[in-house]
Specification:
Length: about 300
């Protein structure tokens, strides 16, 4: 349903149309190729995919059919087509966009320089959010279900972009897409390698070294005035680490954009990445509870930081 609501009314005619250019433009939405659905899902409430198609104006006087295939079948046939048992009523098949490719650096820089869009009144009233740029950085996230849950939460809190370390799992993996409830479509993402390639192509007098996610955070802090926060679960006092604060402490970023860094499910954030952050942030918890699951912690962090 998310793909139907977000794809373009006309089909793409070029294979290059799914790749972002080098001008800092945002990659296009996935291109829908076909819908596979049970009859009730397509025609009857409460889903009624046919209604979504009609509202998107895919069918008009000059075109009697939408620019994608529609396959109606029973559950056994859908399972045979997909190669695994289908529990849901519908599936979408399409061409996913690449990540930012070579323009991750240009796109992110332009995003941070642009004036943030004013938030809807409901968000301003209920969450007291300020229109500042909000970023997430994911360091070696390995579980696709966790990835999908973080994407869904990021969409809920209007996160502007997610930066993925090169060893994080694929956000477009089937399980991640499913757990995200399709919101993988609505969140901008880029890989560290895409940012590094874009940075290396710019002659700005800066020495280009590939330091992974740590290098991106250093650039965000020193060049783009972004407050970088490493989410941690322990109180380890290491001299080279940034100061530790609790999430409940009063924070004031002075209107600066922020980037919250989340680490691997088992090992947390790498030391070299923590060192490039301004602060370490810990969620206060009751005695005897030492940690939360990654998606739960991510949701708490995004909500609290969005209210600052």
């Amino acid at each position: 349903r998310m793909m139907v609501q977000n794809c373009e009314p006309t089909p793409s005619t070029s294979s290059s149309s799914m790749s972002s250019g080098d001008d800092g433009s945002v990659p296009p939405n996935p291109r829908l190729l076909s819908i596979l659905a049970k009859p009730a899902t397509f025609f009857d409430s409460p889903i009624r995919l046919l209604g979504d198609i009609e509202r998107q104006n895919f069918i008009n006087e000059s075109s009697a059919i939408p620019p994608f295939k529609i396959i109606i079948a029973n559950e056994d046939a859908l399972s045979e087509i997909a190669g695994f048992n289908i529990a849901r009523g519908a599936m979408a098949c399409g061409v996913i966009p690449s990540y930012m490719q070579n323009n991750g650096y240009t796109w992110l820089k332009r995003l941070l320089f642009r004036e943030p869009t004013k938030l809807p009144p409901a968000i301003n009233t209920t969450l007291h959010q300020k229109p500042i740029r909000k970023l997430l950085a994911l360091d070696a996230i390995s579980n696709a279900a966790n990835m999908g849950s973080i994407l869904r939460t990021a969409a809920a809190f209007s996160i502007d972009a997610i930066i993925l370390s090169d060893d994080s799992c694929d956000a477009w993996y089937r399980q991640s897409v499913r757990v995200s409830m399709g919101h993988v479509i609505s969140v901008n993402m880029l890989r560290v390698a895409d940012w590094e390639r874009g940075r290396a192509s710019i002659d700005d007098g800066y020495t280009h070294t590939r330091n992974g996610l740590a290098g991106v955070l250093r650039w965000l802090r020193k060049q783009m005035n972004v407050e970088c926060l490493a989410a941690v679960v322990d109180d380890i006092n290491i001299k080279t680490f940034p100061p530790l604060v609790t999430l409940e402490d009063d924070q004031d970023f002075g209107g600066r954009p922020w980037c919250c860094v989340l680490g691997n499910e088992g090992h947390g954030i790498r030391d070299e990445v923590i060192r490039e952050c301004d602060k370490r942030v810990k969620i206060g918890m009751a005695n005897g509870v030492d940690s939360l699951s990654l998606p739960i912690a991510a949701g708490i962090l995004m909500h609290r930081l969005s209210c600052i």
